[in-house]
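Risk mitigation, structural track. In case the binding assays with NAP fail to produce interpretable data, a predicted complex structure has been prepared as a fallback.
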Amino acid sequence: MNEQNVQSMTFVLFGATGDLAQRKLFPALYNLYLEGKLPSPISIIGLGRSPFSDLNFQSIVERSLREYSRRTVQTSILGEFLSKFRYCAFDARNQNSYQLLHDIIIQREKQLGLSGNRLFYLSVSPNLVDVITSNLSACGISQTNGWKRLIVEKPFGSDLKSAQQLNGKLREVFTEDEIYRIDHYLGKPIVQNLESLKLANPILDSLLNQKQIANVQITASETVGVEKRADYYDQAGAIRDMFQNHLLQLVRMTALQLPPKETNKKIGKKQGDIIESLRPIKQQDISKNVVRGQYESGEVHGKSVAGYQEEPGVVAYSKNDTFFAARLYIDNPSWSKIPFYIRTGKRLDQKSTRIVIEFRNKSINLGGFQDSEIPSNLLIIEISPHERVSLWNYIDNFPMDQLDLTCNNLSTNSEEQPESYEILLFDAINGNKTFFVHWKEVESSWKWTQPLLEAFQDDTLPLYPYPAGSSGPHAADLLLQENGFSWR
Ligand SMILES: NC(=O)c1ccc[n+]([C@@H]2O[C@H](COP(=O)([O-])OP(=O)(O)OC[C@H]3O[C@@H](n4cnc5c(N)ncnc54)[C@H](OP(=O)(O)O)[C@@H]3O)[C@@H](O)[C@H]2O)c1
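Fallback model:
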């Protein structure tokens, strides 16, 4: 894409002094700029409560690029890039702040001859989202001659009711087409390329169906504990922090079978259809299909670490889940017989996010090998720490009279991959909503999760302890063992 193709615009970043802006958003803007993918001209206005001058703010941006950009900062063009940034000291709860912001937006639009397109990025605490949105309208900032778009970070609500209320507030000011709910897992190149991997490889495409697949496993394991996020995490738990959003998005990306060249609207509908088709788990079946756990003290990579209850900021006797696993089914003709096993947790033995598709074993007697000796073939899509797709199969090592496992790497493993936020910002700037989360999906995912949240709240489900540095509670292994499988 070359820069003349992108319409001029104002990018308003709420929370510009925060962690996400420094680590991800400024580097993403810079890398897009280097590739000529930012609109020209563009006005970027950063907001935070701290009192900075434009120059102070530009040096904060520069520091963030030097520390976090995937490409080295080029001094020759840095000045030109930074000149696009202005700062506005802004308190979301103070009406005067909005007037000030409006003045700066208009002044820069006139100065640069911008066409009135405005993109608002809310990189702030969730409890500021509705107050900012309402004030954007009340103060006239969202009324513009160009297009307007709103990017919202996760979490989107903390249960079904709060998500519906929040959505109602946003919809008073923005249409669904104008709301971009970001889930950075959907910006990962490997996740975005799942569909093209299938379409470009008829072999894979023919394997990915009910006849061939035995089960799908999605793991997002972390070695870190709650760190400094106890305020938020002790309320949210693994179920809200990871499962309801990121992991259900990976479920739908795995299950999505799109014909090529779908329009954005159709894709949004199909995405929603997958989550809507999740088979509800009845109250009495929750304990048979869902496992929650909490880490105790233990050793991670040879280092002793505290248990969750001892972590700073965690309330005494907290029953919060730091581990979540579930077996779920998608009730549509393509997937209804295939179990999806999902697990996520903190303080586990390895850091890894991956999707594993396990294929069925054939009932054949090959060269004297009994069925039970032949392990299944696997398609492994690693999302982090490395992005890689591999097909694991077995060859008959004739002289040794044994089956050897071989791995066929199906991806290039390029070091030059753009980061999620780069891809998603580019899409939002260009009005492409394909990899943003539609309201229908958010609502369906909360509807499916709500009975589980209630069971957790009412403490009707065991909370299994697991030692830090382990692979989680044994109960999560049993979820698969009762169907004859094990975690891969
Ligand atoms: N950090 C991540 O990796 C990450 C990942 C996924 C999602 N998120 C989501 O992204 C959002 C931002 O996260 P973060 O980690 O950047 O948070 P953060 O470091 O706490 O930053 C919060 C930002 O909000 C501003 N702010 C706070 N109160 C304000 C108010 N009353 N009026 C105006 N601005 C106010 C702060 O400005 P001052 O400090 O100047 O007051 C700061 O710029 C959150 O919703 C989070 O859940 C973050």
